[in-house]
Design brief:
It is a single chain. It is built from no helices and three strands. The protein is an all-beta fold. A three-stranded antiparallel β-sheet has the order 1-2-3, with no helix packed on it. Strand 1 (23-29) and strand 2 form a beta hairpin.
């Protein structure tokens, strides 16, 4: 299955980061099914859950 994920709400505070809108890290843990995302110079890695559209 192929689709789009709207990650616009996960951006950290732009006042804190030099490149706050550069999402460039996505990882999938095949063993647990967890998905992680981060961005250029972001201080955190975020675990996300994919849910089907309504």
């Amino acid at each position: 299955m192929t689709g789009w994920i709207d990650m616009s709400g996960i951006n950290p505070d732009p006042a804190v980061l030099i490149d706050p809108f550069v999402l460039n890290g996505i990882a999938y843990d095949e063993e647990t099914g967890q998905i992680f995302v981060t961005g250029k110079c972001w201080p955190n890695v975020y675990e996300i859950e994919l849910v089907p559209p309504e």
